[in-house]
Amino acid sequence: MECLEEEAAWNLFRNSARMDVIDADKNIRIQARDLVKECGGLPAALIVLAQAMAPKKTLEEWIHALTIMKDTPHQLPVTTCEFAPLMVHYSKKDLGLANIILGIWIGEGIIDNADNIWDSTRKTQFLLGILHAASLTERVNDDYCLSRAPISNNYFTIHPMTRAMILWVQRECGKKENKWLVRDRERVEEASAVEKWRDAERIALVWNQIRDLPEAPQCPNLIFLNLDVNKYLRKFPNGFFLHMPHLKILDLQQTSIEELPVSIGNLMQLHFLQLSGTRITSLPKEMAALVNLKYLSLESMKYLRTIPDRLISGLRELQWLDMVDSYSGWREGQTWEGGVSFEELESLKRLKVIGITVSTLAALQNLCDSPRLAAFTHWLHIEGCQDLMMFNIPSMDFHAETMLRLIRIQLHAMSELEEVVIGNRQPILLPLQELRLSSLPKAKLVWRAWFPNTLVALKIEDCRAIDRLIKLEGEANGSGETIITIFPYLQIMVLRQLPELKSLSDGQRILNFPSLKTIKVEDCPKLTKLTLVADGLKEIECERLWWEQLNWGDERTKSFEHLYNPMI
Predict the structure, then answer these.
(1) Residue 443 DSSP code
(2) Is 172 exposed, middle or buried, given 0-12, 13-18 or 19+ CB atoms closer than 10 A?
(3) Taking the chain (568 residues) in consecutive chunks of 10 residues, what is each chunk's mean pLDDT?
(4) Separation CA 390–CA 367 (nearest Å)
(5) How far is CA 191 from CA 65, 187, 215, 238, 407, in A?
(6) In 3-state terms, what secondary structure has residue 383?
(7) 3-state secondary structure of 558
(8) At what angle do helices 43-53 and 26-38 cross, to 10 degrees?
(9) Are 290 and 270 in contact (CB under 8 A)?
(10) Pick from 31, 75, 326, 413: CA 20 to 30 A from residue 81's CA?
(11) What is the strand order of the sheet 471-472 is part of?
């Protein structure tokens, strides 16, 4: 069932158990209303709660119930029998739903041996669809966002009552409270007591303020540890991973750790390792012992400079390797002076999905010259390549016919790059969904009309030479305005720090964006008119000052005046 609106939820609650006390006592009625709100409209929760509260006659009992409901709803005084109808719906698997769920399910073994990211994505969507159909999840955003996989409808949330019930069931109906230790966004400053870790199978302490961890916790049953987004966590004790023999999932992304302890080599059963956004400068050689690792994310590890020789090739079960906006010290030619070679990546027989960063033309050429690596490259980040003056998408210069699974291209920090050309006379169709251009002081975006494209997101930031969104090659036919569709699937456009940008079209040729839903604009002072066609546009996220200085006398601009969304 879908969740109910507030009044419908209240009526279901009152009708599920006769409670004269609600009508008789105004104060109890207030508490009851608040209890109903905490259920979030979930019908099953409302019915079970109503039956549990029917015998409660005093205000103190109702106040206490509301306190429990806000903190630990699974501890409400109901019987196992009353919860039995709900228990059959809950999976035994972890339901930490987010856009990283695909990677976690690879680590859990739910998704395995997929030939490419689309197969994995389809299976993920199928499984999420089952959960959604059973009302165990809710879609948060049906629009495309800048995700790491070709997935729309990508964001799901789990109802608080459903989540509480899953935790209750997994803790064997409350009999083993330490089996799953979950403290989410509670500003926790200290990790749970060591004695609690001994019994835990899963620990999630995400979005907190933890600074210190126990020295060498005994965790004989632990299979899942998530410390995601603990910004104050800078260091792991050397022996932290010594006694976690069954750990399969380890998520440390967005922490401030600068190095991994050598004891990470003890995690022989680890399948999933997420290090994105950390401050690690060098991977320890002991990581080569992670012979069962399937998923490794080093995305946005901007400080990573050193990967020991033969470490990567030791991860023989690796299926997914993401190194976007991260390590770029690839060994070139036959030199043995530092750097990881592409031959190491080629030796990984199970590798199917790659995100990679290159910083020289030689490295880019070597990548494209490897049919296997090129075929598995899904995200390509090119940065600091000072010899690159023009880049074609698709690029015949770099054997684009072998790189046919590219989902995202990002070009960053290249001072000599003058043109990014979308289109090529060769009949090559990429599945490209995202194009990101950033810190390119000379670059302009150029379009060749004979290129069929599947772009869904376009992000341009700190490109100071761009005066119009895109230059259209060739002359316009006839006189007067011409409406042209070149991005039929584009859903989101992000424009930041473009001091010369004056127009979103090209002269008399007005661009039509039939699928565009969101435009984000920041620090584009010369853009004073919204000259485009976008009938499906839902929002323009921007600063108030820029919005107010737009030319509202322009008819096309005026047609968008109801779409303002203040930038946070």
Answers:
(1) -
(2) exposed
(3) 82 80 86 86 79 82 80 54 40 44 82 71 70 66 46 60 71 74 84 82 92 93 95 95 97 96 97 97 97 96 94 95 95 69 94 95 90 92 93 73 86 96 71 94 88 88 97 72 92 97 94 96 97 96 96 96 93
(4) 18
(5) 28, 11, 11, 17, 39
(6) strand
(7) helix
(8) 150
(9) yes
(10) 31
(11) 390-393, 419-422, 444-447, 471-472
Contacts of 132 (CB under 8 A, 6+ apart): 138, 139, 156
**Percentage helix, strand, coil, to 5, in the chain?**
25, 20, 55
Tokens 């950033």: give the residue: 438
535 CB neighbour count, 10 Å cutoff: 10
By C-alpha distance, which of 454, 539, 472 is closest to 510?
472
Phi, psi of 380 (to 5 degrees): -120, 120
Spatial contact of 288 and 266, defined as CB atoms under 8 Å apart: no
- Residues 492, 430, 508, CA angle at the centre, nearest 5°? 55
H runs (alpha helix) in 72-116: 80-87, 101-108
For residue 62, give the nearest of 29, 18, 24 by alpha carbon.
Answer: 29
Angle 74-80-82 (CA atoms, 0-180°, nearest 5)?
90
Count CA atoms within 13 Å of residue 524 on its CB side: 29
DSSP string, 303-356: T--B--TTTGGG-TT--EEE-TTS---B--TT--SSSB-HHHHHT-TT--EEEE
Q: Residue 382: name the closest of 390, 310, 254, 489 by CA.
A: 390
The amino acid at residue 74 is H
Q: Give the whole-angstrom CA distance, residue 102 versus residue 173.
A: 28
Distance in angstroms (rounded) separating the CA atoms of residues 251 and 383: 27
Give the span between the Cα atoms of 25 and 250, in whole angstroms.
Answer: 51
Burial class (CB in 10 A: 0-12, 13-18, 19+), 9: buried
d(CA 513, CA 501): 18
| Burial (Cβ within 10 Å: 0-12, 13-18, ≥19) of residue 358 | buried
Q: What pLDDT shows up at residue 52?
A: 79
Phi and psi, residue 304, nearest 5°: -70, 120
Q: Is 153 buried (19+), middle (13-18) or exposed (0-12) by CB count in 10 A?
A: middle
Q: Which pair of tokens denotes residue 8?
A: 């419908």
DSSP structural state of residue 226? E
Query: What are the backbone dihedrals phi and psi of residue 92, each rounded to the nearest 5 degrees, phi first?
Result: -80, -5
Three-state SS at 434: strand
What totals of helices (H) and strands (E) does the chain contain, helices first? Answer: 15, 24
Strands 138-141 and 155-157: antiparallel
Question: CA dihedral in degrees (105, 111, 116, 120; nearest 10)?
Answer: -70
∠ Cα 356 361 366 (to 5°) = 60
Strand, coil or helix: 163: helix
| Pairwise CA distance, residues 64 & 239, whole Å | 43
| Of the candidates 499, 421, 422, the residue with the CA atom closest to the CA atom of residue 466 | 499
Query: Contact, 399 vs 424, CB < 8 A?
Result: no
Phi, psi at 203, each rounded to 5°:
-130, 125
Specify the residue for token string 């109910």. Answer: 4
